[in-house]
Write a structure and sequence with these properties.
about 150 residues; mainly alpha; about 0% strand
Length: about 150
């Protein structure tokens, strides 16, 4: 099915569906290990306050979404070939749901666990979300280019 034959709503639904095929259990483990390591480093520094949880939560969320998204793009054992083909043809669009999830959850983590206001937490979360989008989009684009060659 060509990209022009589908509505924006159908494209959004396919993007969300393609985001579900990632290795999310592995991603949760990696995110937990990275978050716990970052928390250990924060604990060693001796800054004992609630805002010491904001940084490790952000690191854990970033690596959770990174492993889940990139792993889903590189995974080849998807049951639905049409969904996989759509995700391969639209690497940037298929990375958007994870980017939005990271932006929202990291904003909440920085707001509730850190000492940032809502707008400060949002702007602080833009960098990791943009980095996730860039990495996932480039990985998907390279995979797409290698598949055509």
């Amino acid at each position: 099915m060509a990209h022009d034959d589908m509505s924006r709503r159908e494209n959004r639904q396919l993007a969300v569906a393609s985001a579900t095929v990632g290795p999310w259990r592995t991603a949760a483990g990696v995110g937990a290990v990275v978050g716990a390591t970052a928390l250990g480093v924060e604990a060693i520094t001796g800054n004992w306050a609630l805002d010491m949880l904001a940084g490790p939560a952000g690191w854990g969320l970033f690596f959770f979404f990174l492993v889940g998204t990139v792993g889903g793009q590189l995974r080849g054992d998807t049951a639905d070939r049409r969904l996989r083909r759509w995700a391969d043809e639209h690497p940037w669009q298929s990375a958007l749901p994870a980017t939005g999830g990271l932006l929202a959850l990291n904003t909440l983590a920085q707001y509730f666990l850190g000492d940032e206001g809502l707008f400060g937490a949002f702007f602080l979360s833009l960098l990791p979300a943009g980095l996730l989008l860039a990495v996932a989009g480039v990985v998907g684009s390279v995979k797409q280019a290698r598949g055509k060659g």
